[in-house]
Amino acid sequence: MDDVLKVGARSFRSRLLVGTGKYKDLAQTAAAVAASGAEIVTVAIRRTNIGQNPDEPNLLDVLPPNRYTILPNTAGCYTAQDAVRTCQLARELLDGHNLVKLEVLGDAKTLYPDIPATLEAADALVADGFEVMVYTSDDPIIAKRLEEAGCVAVMPLAAPIGSGLGIQNRYNILTIVENAKVPVLVDAGVGTASDAAIAMELGCDGVLMNTAIAAARDPVLMAQAMRDAIQAGRLAFRAGRMPRRRYASASSPLDGLSPT
Questions:
Q1: Predicted pLDDT of residue 260
Q2: Would you call 115 exposed, middle or buried from its count of C-beta atoms within 10 A (0-12, 13-18, 19+)?
Q3: Are 187 and 157 in contact (CB under 8 A)?
Q4: Is it the case that residue 1 has pLDDT exceeding 60?
Q5: By the 8 A CB rule, do 176 and 184 touch?
Q6: Number of H helices, E strands in the chain
Q7: Can you tell me the distance from the alpha carbon of 48 to that of 173, in angstroms, rounded to the nearest whole number?
């Protein structure tokens, strides 16, 4: 507990956040989330039943809010107005819960964020009392503007959503991390455990992923791998890696030894 993730007023032991889409059924969803060790679980309100459809299976039956922090997200929203309404619906369904993940998309093919609409929605949600974790591009200037707007975490993409391409923009991510005073979490692009470790080694405070786990041949096993990768990457960042050198450096230096 000496190294916790603090998001707004909340603290978490796990730095891995996981989504709940694309699994074959709710049982697999629950098993993979449990294996991941995640405490924050994100839910697409426009696509997932958390009580708004009483006659359909309810995700909260297998991922109860007394065990997990449910993070409603605005996936599928293409306007600031839709995103704000979706968050307000989630707050009503979850008895006043105000921690949300904001994403306003600008393109249906790439799922890149619409930054002007994202800023508009962030301003409105913060004014309405929400704690906003925000999906954004890898532009350090935009990330800072979203922080200044009152977002409690910024979540830049590392590659397009669902691509599994890994960390394609590590210098941009590093710049965002260096300038931020709120948590920075990679959101989108992770494909395997090494990608998650790299994000953490760059100094990110956490990683959010869905497809990398749900689309794996064995989602539960991949969830375990991601859990361990996040922990290893965080420890490596805290430990401080050795400098990169052009030439070899002997493990047992010969300096100071007399010739034989």
A1: 58
A2: middle
A3: yes
A4: no
A5: yes
A6: 8, 10
A7: 30
pLDDT at 38 over 80: yes
Q: Which amino acid is at 102?
A: L
- Position 253 scores a pLDDT of 60
Handedness of CA 79, 166, 204, 179 (dihedral sign): negative
Whole-number pLDDT of residue 183 = 98
The residue annotated as part of the active site, out of 101, 109, 144, 181, is 101
The average pLDDT across 245-251 equals 76
What single-letter amino acid sits at 173? I
- State the chain's maximal CA–CA distance in angstroms: 85
pTM (two decimals): 0.91
pLDDT on residue 113: 96
Please check the confidence at residue 230 and state whether its pLDDT lies above 80: yes
Is 101 among the residues known to form the active site? yes
- Pairing between strand 40-44 and 69-73? parallel
Strands (E), 164-234: 185-187, 206-209
Contact criterion met (CB below 8 Å) for 220 and 35: yes
Whole-angstrom CA distances from 107 to 72, 114, 163, 220, 223 are: 21, 8, 15, 31, 29
